[in-house]
Automatic annotation (TrEMBL):
<comment type="similarity">
    <text>Belongs to the TonB-dependent receptor family.</text>
</comment>
<feature type="short sequence motif" description="TonB C-terminal box">
    <location>
        <begin position="973"/>
        <end position="990"/>
    </location>
</feature>
<keyword id="KW-0675">Receptor</keyword>
<keyword id="KW-0998">Cell outer membrane</keyword>
<keyword id="KW-0472">Membrane</keyword>
<protein>
    <submittedName>
        <fullName>TonB-dependent receptor plug domain-containing protein</fullName>
    </submittedName>
</protein>
<dbReference type="InterPro" id="IPR037066">
    <property type="entry name" value="Plug_dom_sf"/>
</dbReference>
<keyword id="KW-0798">TonB box</keyword>
<feature type="domain" description="TonB-dependent receptor-like beta-barrel">
    <location>
        <begin position="425"/>
        <end position="953"/>
    </location>
</feature>
<dbReference type="InterPro" id="IPR012910">
    <property type="entry name" value="Plug_dom"/>
</dbReference>
<keyword id="KW-0732">Signal</keyword>
<dbReference type="InterPro" id="IPR036942">
    <property type="entry name" value="Beta-barrel_TonB_sf"/>
</dbReference>
<dbReference type="Pfam" id="PF00593">
    <property type="entry name" value="TonB_dep_Rec_b-barrel"/>
</dbReference>
<dbReference type="InterPro" id="IPR039426">
    <property type="entry name" value="TonB-dep_rcpt-like"/>
</dbReference>
<keyword id="KW-0812">Transmembrane</keyword>
<feature type="signal peptide">
    <location>
        <begin position="1"/>
        <end position="30"/>
    </location>
</feature>
<dbReference type="Pfam" id="PF07715">
    <property type="entry name" value="Plug"/>
</dbReference>
């Protein structure tokens, strides 16, 4: 007899057999509930299902582990079968499709970045609150971060051993501690796996790129009469990524959706017309592919690949004015519409980072007594990524001397005629090598623990104790980025003793070699080594360590009139540490980084402050904090009768002491009511949750820049100051109030194949960590806010004035909405063998209001702004037919139309005055997207299956996400940027 389970936000501690069966049902919504209420079981199976099991399942919505506990916090459960049917090279891709996950990062995000260090970092974001506010666990345990922001990398988890993934869509800080503001994602592995299984997957896009090869294998065996358990797994994944296109509008492969769409800024706010205009084919008029004179009497002369001068083709019928502006174009952001786009760099960024990951995992457990185990786990992983953030080197503010010997004679003659000796110049430097960013993350994680049961006073208690030590080593290298002052020196050439050399004698003495920037003339090897030293490019070496000691107990100490009282309590110690060292060209040697390595002597470079690279100016730093915490959670049965149903009250409290910010308290109170109506449940929970500042916010590696004309409001004069961007050890934890109300109809007697749920949520987050500009910090102090007066000095001698730019607990966020889930399962549909299941999950964001906490800055509702991660509606629907041997799956992913930003005022004529808070715009609509994926699996026998899948079947292109620059105007956090993908593979299990 086949057993099927559809658990819709109501799973409790259920048996191993029940969860294994649940996985066959695929994607499910779950909330802790008694197993019998969560199942549709044939009569002959009921007795077996009700029998006690050797091990209870811990569902992540609560720390209570006893079967029958009903927790009020909604939890989505994704089983093995759903993970397998989705056929992804990284389990992250499957989980990130859930509608409640908004703004997660992966290999297709962050590819435009040079300096973030988060390229290819797979991390989850619940409710659009960013990955730093989602707690990700492995078997209920914390994982060492892969970045100083504190988020782990899912690519480093032992993915083939994952039995299920619990996604708690509500605040869980009282149960699990800091970071669980948006919720918790918990990966549950099969610690008792026996046998040998594997998975081989290959994939490629329609455009012939992102070739992927995945090989996974796992082995498990028991010894000593099933008391000793050994589990091993390993995997290798190579994803070729999608590289950059060329300058202009040409993307990688034959993709043709890029239009260089930009919000053109007229720079005029009060003429009755919109300040911003949505336009395709934005042409920057400050530079061209091989050089453009952009200021002075010769403005408009560009250079062909062979160096021949020609009149640049400005869009919009533009004409250069000789003063840097171009008529009929957009002065506010220096764009024309159309014309010569060959030098625009937007299409020259990778669409997806190349990624290679290797993962090894081992676990050995020994049952030293019945239902008691000692275990050790070791996880060693490495993830390498590569992306191109932009092509060439864009420089729009270069001054060229008319005497430059590389300049064509006709231009030198025109200089003489115009009576000038120099002119403004901009170039994309397309002859330069394209910058490349390489990241290499290595992780070593060790866990030793004890778990099991014991009897105390006639009551069974569960315990779980573990110690975890994790290390992440992260290296970032950037190749072919220029040192800006050296580039300027190399472009300023003269003729000396019949040879072309750098004009600056100091630069010549330090190895300067001249560069011809008037055409497609690649720099010589020696010139390139001087301008962009390949082996000494920007570099950052980071070490992060995490130590966790945790002890937890749970049990049913006594019974009340309505059933047993369940209790969980425990404590935890955690230490987080990081150290980062950077190259001296970027880090410099300053009082803020006294341990910097020796700086290469070069008078053209800033030895003290560093920041000499065009991008990738990493800094040195270190920091640590410690955490001590304890919690108690109680489940109290209120009533249990056939006439009024069953109700439970759940409450939890946690006290946490941070070495940096003191003590903070979190709590939750909620309850569930299983009504007398068949399958109908009501639930509610409210909680106080926190996110502690991470290592980056507390101890950010300092960045120092010079502000030469800073306005001192105290003396009403301009002064030179050093701007020190540093962390703030006085930051306090962010505090959230999270409320959820829900109703569930789960397999009622009158229609046992049906499950429905509706959950409303409301989150208010205060004290959000955010930063101010140097000008804002000084101005707020000047206006009387003493909180900002201790971080700057403006009355010192020349060279000692400074402003510390730090993060503060300033902003507040408010978001609300609801989740909907519906499913139905038919057995033997149309007389066919097997089952047919339809399931849909949706999230509607009613509001997502971000308040900067700054006087004069209005709050902005980001709900429905599709250039971010919070669309109004997001749905995932899955239809699955399973005959026992053949499984067919169709999946739809959809999100609604939106805007570029809800702060804009749309108008065509008679526009109000455009302001910073409410700028005017001629168009503010961004279409949503609908994607269809299809897949099939065929079991050749009980041990061997073959499968195939097509993602984005109709090759749906992304829509433009225009900004006010010519970057790659696309939002990979929402839209599919790769196109149709073909996948095929084989699975075996012996």
């Amino acid at each position: 007899m086949k057993v099927t389970i559809a658990i819709h936000r109501q799973l409790a501690g259920v048996s191993l057999a029940a969860v294994a069966t649940m996985a066959l049902a695929g994607l499910a919504q779950a909330q802790t509930a008694p197993a019998p209420q969560a199942q549709s079981i044939a009569p002959q199976d009921q007795a077996d299902a009700a029998a006690p099991r050797a091990a209870d399942i811990i569902v992540t919505g609560s720390r209570i582990t006893t079967s029958g506990f009903n927790a009020p916090t909604p939890t989505t459960v994704i089983g093995e079968e759903q993970i397998a049917n989705n056929a992804q090279p990284n389990i992250f891709n499957t989980i990130a499709q859930l509608p409640s996950l908004q703004g997660s990062t992966g290999a297709a995000t962050g590819t435009f970045s040079t300096s973030s260090g988060q390229q290819g970092l797979s991390s989850f974001s619940l409710r659009g609150l960013q990955p730093i506010r989602t707690l990700t666990l492995l078997d209920g345990q914390r994982v060492v971060a892969a970045n100083v922001t504190g988020v782990p990398d899912i690519s480093m988890f032992p993915q083939l051993l994952v039995k299920r993934v619990d996604v708690v869509t509500g605040g869980a800080s009282a149960s699990y501690g800091s970071d669980a503001v948006g919720g918790v994602v918990n990966f549950i592995t099969d610690t008792r796996f026996e046998g040998f299984k594997g998975n081989i997957l290959g994939s490629i896009t329609k455009y012939g790129d992102d070739e992927t090869a995945l090989v996974q294998a796992a082995y498990g065996k028991s010894f000593m009469d099933d008391r000793l358990h050994l589990v091993l797994s390993g995997e290798y994944d190579h994803e070729g990524g999608v590289g950059a296109g060329d300058f202009g509008t040409d993307l990688a492969g034959s993709r043709n959706w890029y239009r260089a769409t930009t919000l053109m800024n007229t720079g005029i706010t009060n003429n009755g017309l919109p300040q911003f205009n949505y336009r395709d084919y934005a042409q920057p008029y400050q530079y061209a592919r091989y050089g453009l004179i952009n200021n002075g009497p010769l403005q408009g002369i560009a250079f062909a690949p062979d160096g021949t001068p020609y009149n640049f083709n400005y869009g919009s019928n533009g004409r250069p004015t000789g003063t840097g502006a171009v008529t009929n174009c957009y002065r506010g952001n220096s764009f024309c519409e159309g014309g010569d786009l060959t030098g625009a760099p937007g299409s020259g960024a990778s669409l997806k980072s190349k990624l290679e990951r290797i993962n090894g995992y081992g676990r050995i457990g020994f049952d030293f007594a019945p239902d008691n185990e000692a275990y050790v786990t070791v996880n060693v992983a490495q993830v390498k990524t590569n992306n191109q953030p932009s092509p060439g080197y864009g420089r729009a503010s270069l001054t060229v001397q008319c005497a430059n010997p590389y300049l064509p004679q006709s231009v030198r003659t025109a200089c003489a005629t115009a009576g000038i000796t120099s002119f403004g110049f901009g170039s994309s430097n397309a002859s330069f090598p394209d910058p490349q960013v390489y990241t290499d993350r290595k992780q070593y994680r060790f866990v030793g623990g004890l778990k099991g049961k014991f009897d105390l006073g006639g009551t069974d208690w569960n315990y779980d104790a573990y110690y975890e030590h994790g290390i992440t080593i992260s290296d970032i290298r950037v190749r072919d980025i220029v040192l800006q002052n050296r580039y300027v020196a190399a472009t300023n050439a003269i003729t000396l003793n019949g040879a072309i050399v750098c004009a600056d004698p100091v630069a010549r003495a330090n190895g300067c070699q001249p560069i011809n920037i008037f055409g497609n003339f690649a720099p010589s090897a020696s010139a390139l080594a001087y301008v962009a030293p390949h082996e000494n490019g920007p570099f950052q070496h980071t070490k992060l360590t995490q130590d966790v000691a945790s002890l937890n107990f749970s049990g049913n100490p006594f019974d009340l009139w309505a059933g047993p009282v369940s209790v969980a309590f425990g404590g935890e110690y955690r230490r987080e540490f990081y150290r980062v060292n950077a190259d001296p060209y970027g880090a410099g040697v300053s009082p803020l980084s006294p341990n910097s390595p020796a700086y290469p002597a070069d008078p053209l470079l800033n030895a003290q402050l560093g920041s000499n690279w065009a991008a990738g100016n990493y800094k040195n730093g270190r920091g640590k904090y410690e955490v001590y915490e304890g919690y108690v959670e109680v489940d109290l049965p209120i009533f249990d009768s056939q006439s009024i149903g069953r109700a439970n009250l759940n409450a939890a409290g946690r006290g946490t002491h941070y070495s940096t910010s003191g003590t903070v308290w979190t709590w939750k109170v909620g309850g569930t009511w299983d009504t007398p109506l068949s399958g109908l449940r009501l639930r509610a929970v409210t909680s106080r949750d926190v996110r502690a500042p991470n290592l980056s916010e507390l101890f950010a590696a300092p960045t120092v820049t010079t502000l030469p004309n800073f306005n001192d409001p105290f003396r009403n004069q301009a002064v030179q100051v050093f701007q020190n961007v540093v962390g703030n050890t006085n930051l306090r934890p962010e505090v959230a109030r999270n409320t959820e109300l829900g109703v569930v109809l789960a397999r009622p007697e009158w229609l046992p194949g049906l499950s429905l749920s509706f959950d409303y949520y409301n989150i208010k987050l205060s004290g959000v960590v955010s930063s101010l500009s140097a000008d804002q910090i000084v101005r707020f102090c000047f206006e009387g806010n003493q909180a900002f007066c201790g971080g700057f000095q403006l009355d010192g001698a020349q060279g000692t004035n400074f402003v510390n730019v730090q993060p503060f607990n300033l902003a507040s966020w408010k978001t609300s909405g609801f989740d909907i889930e519906a499913s139905y399962q038919w057995q033997q549909p149309l007389g066919l063998p097997g089952s047919f299941t339809v399931r849909a999950l949706g999230t509607h964001i009613q509001k997502f209001v971000v308040s900067a906490g700054i006087a004069g800055v209005d709050p902005v509702d980001q709900a429905g702004a599709n250039n971010g991660a919070t669309p109004d509606w997001k749905w995932l629907a899955v239809q699955t037919y399973d005959s026992g041997r053949l499984t067919l799956t169709v999946q739809e992913r959809w999100f609604s139309d939106g805007t570029f930003g809800n702060q804009y005022v749309v108008c065509q004529t008679s526009c109000p005055v455009s302001t910073g808070n409410h700028p005017t715009i001629d168009r503010n609509k961004m279409k949503g997207a609908f994607y269809v994926d299809v897949g099939a699996t065929f079991k050749l026998n009980d041990q061997l299956s073959i499968y195939g899948k097509v993602d984005n079947l109709f090759d749906k292109d992304p829509v433009a996400s225009p900004q006010t620059n010519t970057g790659l105007d696309v939002n990979p956090a929402l839209y599919d940027t790769l196109g149709r993908i073909y996948r095929a593979g084989v699975r075996f299990n012996f």
